[in-house]
Amino acid sequence: MDYKQLPIWRKANLMLVTIEQAVLHFPRYHKYTLGSELRQKAMRICQCIHRAVTRRSSKTKLVQQLSELIDDLKCQVQLAKELHAFKSFSQFQSVVELVVGLGKQAGGWLKQTRAELPLNKGR
Prior knowledge:
- It comes from Pseudoalteromonas viridis.
- Residues 12-112 form the bAvd-like domain.
- Pfam families: bAvd.
- This is Four helix bundle protein.
- The protein is an all-alpha fold.
- It has a single domain (3-115), classed as de novo design (two linked rop proteins).
- Helix content is 80%, strand content 0%.
- It has six helices and no strands.
- It has helices at residues 7-24, 28-31, 34-54, 59-82, 89-115, 118-121.
- Helix 1 packs antiparallel against helix 5 (89-115), helix 3 (34-54) runs antiparallel to helix 4 and helix 4 runs antiparallel to helix 5.
- It is elongated and about 50 Å long.
- The model has no long low-confidence stretch (mean pLDDT 92).
């Protein structure tokens, strides 16, 4: 399966680009601290999706890690809003909607992968 065709990958990629564009407009004080962390976390989310698709033996663990990374990113995005790092509320709203949507997709994927575990098949 080509991971680039997956809806979760496309949404994660769009989120990464949207965060990159948002951080460009952060005030200098936040651009190189919080902005850098947001960019790195978004990149790690994309990497985690790729690994979860290509490494079947550790898929559940990687999808769990993905879900945790998204939760961490939600907290950081909220902090950036509270610190007025975003250029506008609509920019924050665009980012947070992507992150929340991605969290829902990851949650569904996690539920599915847990249901596929051999221990749960006998139930």
